[in-house]
Design goal:
The complex is a heterodimer. By secondary structure, chain A is an all-alpha fold. Chain A has helices at 2-8, 16-19, 30-41, 48-59, 61-84, 90-95, 97-102. Chain A is globular and about 40 Å long. The two termini of chain A are 22 Å apart. Chain B has 7 helices and no strands. Chain B is globular. Chain B is mainly α. In chain B, helix 2 crosses helix 5 (98-121). Chain B has helices spanning 27-40, 49-61, 69-79, 86-96, 98-121, 166-179, 199-212. Chains A and B meet through helix 1, helix 3, helix 4 and helix 5 of A and helix 3, helix 5, helix 6 and helix 7 of B.
Chain lengths: 111, 217
């Protein structure tokens, strides 16, 4: 839904930033949010406090709570999808083929 | 605890202070976490509360028994969900049955929502609640099909993935609104919390999170 919502907000986004946060995403505060996720997960070496501060400074304290909550929500939904075995729908696979390849998610085609 | 002549559940009042968070947490999110704690400490449809909490404690602390396929699934799902595959789930189903597996998936996933929100805020994890007495409620849904999924469900959708146990799916669905959006809101490309993030910003976090967990959702 990032693609659809960016369109709705008239953001000119580069989805490659989802895989590489050094690329400007094109969403207000987007790269701060990507780097926040990387700091939580340990993908980056950045200190969590620094990443939190950037989100607060660029988007406000409420945004940090929202971002943390979304992180928690998708920790939940991803586990439900994986545990119950929700496959990628064929029509979605066809529609998002470029995104799947860009993000290296080819394993999702098998279950 | 308030003195009202009625004992309050132990999750009330003193818990979910989000100690360590640099910002205050909005009330609806705090209430959602309290509701999850209230849910996990009750007897479920398949397990009594002691069993529910022992599964969660083992998942959090990576202490499942080697001869416990359900425990292994629950712990792997909590710690490294990308390692959960069909064989692991089917092994748990063979040992315990579909309904037990669905309850375990539900519990672990909701725990992951609470714990990962805390981790993101830099807040201390909340101790698990005390189990409440009572027998499992039963009430497994009938007529559901397995489809291309590991467990039976009414249709292939993450929104009803736990519907084999309606109370679990209901608890999970209620959690989504305060953390992200309700299932209804998910259908529209425009959504805003004010103050807070808009849909595109929420999806930015969701996308990077899902990529990290190697899940398309």
């Amino acid at each position: 839904m990032l693609r659809e919502s960016a369109l709705a907000y008239s953001y000119d986004i580069d989805l490659a930033a989802i895989a590489d946060p050094t690329i400007p995403l094109g969403v207000p505060g987007g790269n701060a949010l990507l780097e926040f996720v990387d700091a939580i997960t340990g993908v980056s070496n950045e200190d969590l406090s620094s990443a939190q501060l950037r989100v607060i400074e660029e988007l406000g304290p409420e945004a940090l709570v929202d971002a943390a909550a979304v992180f928690g929500n998708f920790a939940m939904m991803n586990r439900i999808a994986e545990g119950t075995g929700i496959p990628l729908a064929p029509q979605m696979e066809a529609r998002e083929e470029d995104l799947i390849a860009m993000l290296g998610l080819d394993r999702l085609k098998k279950h | 605890m308030a003195v009202t002549g009625r004992r309050l559940p132990v999750y009330a009042s003193a818990m979910f202070s989000f100690n360590g968070s640099p910002v205050p947490v909005r009330d609806d999110l705090k209430s959602a976490h309290e509701a999850i704690w209230a849910h996990i400490q009750q007897p479920g449809q398949m397990f009594d509360a002691d069993r529910r909490l022992s599964i969660l404690d083992a998942a959090r602390n990576n202490t499942y028994a080697e001869d416990d396929p359900l425990g292994r699934l629950a712990t792997t799902l909590y710690t490294t969900p990308a390692d959960v595959n069909g064989d692991l789930v089917r092994s748990a189903i063979a040992a315990s049955g579909d309904p037990d597996v669905v309850e375990a998936i539900s519990l672990v996933s909701m725990l992951a929502a609470v714990d990962n929100t805390h981790r993101a805020l830099g807040a201390e994890l909340e101790p698990l609640p005390q189990p409440l007495p009572g027998d499992p409620a039963g009430g497994i849904a009938t007529g559901l099909k397995q489809r291309r999924t590991h467990v039976p469900m009414p249709m292939t959708s993450v929104t009803v993935a736990l519907d084999l146990l309606p109370a679990e799916n209901e608890a999970y669905a209620a959690t989504c609104g305060p953390h992200y959006m309700t299932f209804t809101e998910m259908g529209t490309p425009v959504f805003e919390r004010s103050p807070g993030l808009n849909r595109a910003q929420l999806e930015t976090v969701a996308s990077r999170t899902s990529l990290f967990q190697k899940c398309f959702y």
